[in-house]
Amino acid sequence: MGIPALTFDVQLTRPDRLVLQQLSDDMASPSATDDEPIIAKLKAVNDPSDARFEPTVFTTYDQADTDNLPGVLHRLLSSYITWARTACRVETDVVFVTHLLLYFSTSIPSAILLFTRFSYLHAVFHIAMQGYYMGPYTLLKHQHIHQRGVLARRFALIDNLFPYVMDPLMGHTWNSYYYHHVKHHHVEGNGPGDLSSTIRFQRDSLSHFLQYLGRFFFLVWLDLPQYFVRSGRTALGVKCGFWEVGSYVALVMAFRVDARAALFVFGLPLLFLRIALMVGNWGQHAFVDCDEPDSDYRSSVTLVDVAVSHEFFLGFSDLGSGVRVGGKGKCWNGG
What we know:
By secondary structure, the chain is mainly α. The protein has helices at 14-28, 36-44, 71-87, 94-116, 120-147, 156-169, 176-188, 206-230, 234-257, 259-284.
């Protein structure tokens, strides 16, 4: 029986389709296929010096998908891509410029309008729009905090300031993602010292998840500064506490200006994103291999196109006898 022809989801990227097609060809005729051409092509689409280079411009379309646009639109898009490649820090990341322009042209005007002329219909559409934006924006923020910016050096002022404008609209408190994710989570790596660790919880228990979510949601503003102080990084603790409390003060002030607008512009995004962040971390670390809890490859759920290094476990070397086999269960009994 032959290998059936593959059909690809239209949402897959072109590199995904190329790899899957190569795998299909390998299965059909293992000795006849050559991997070198596909490897060269994959390298080329990510190499700005190669004529076949394709920067990521949109999250739902590859650049090749836009080749059939009408002439004027195609020329405008090509001009935009040429400029945006010089505006972003890394030429592959034109999509970050695209999304920043999108947010500043939609989220901010919509928020201002809600505070000046509120309507519940507009508010519902606004929160739906922000809900759609939150995931891509958080990925943008993830890149921003890891490489200290996403825009070219000549746009350093915008690069440094846009999070203070956009973060509250997307459910983030000022600088908290940087302090929690880079300075804390990547240091502790879901180990016993990680405030958002899953290893003390039964990962298939709703009540345990609610405890996990509740602790983060209500106490992270206090827990995280205390963590930095305990670990001898008092300056970080003071900065973290200042920005976290400052965000809540700003939120209260917004509610005093217009409670209805503040609820939809700032309050609900904060609620939704904090739940989403904890759901994401819980799912990412739902399966911890207690036989090898310090394995870079067995300590988190890893998907195709998601870097394993993003969620390395860095802090299990001293667990000792506290580790026990547990599947979805707890992997830590120590204090």
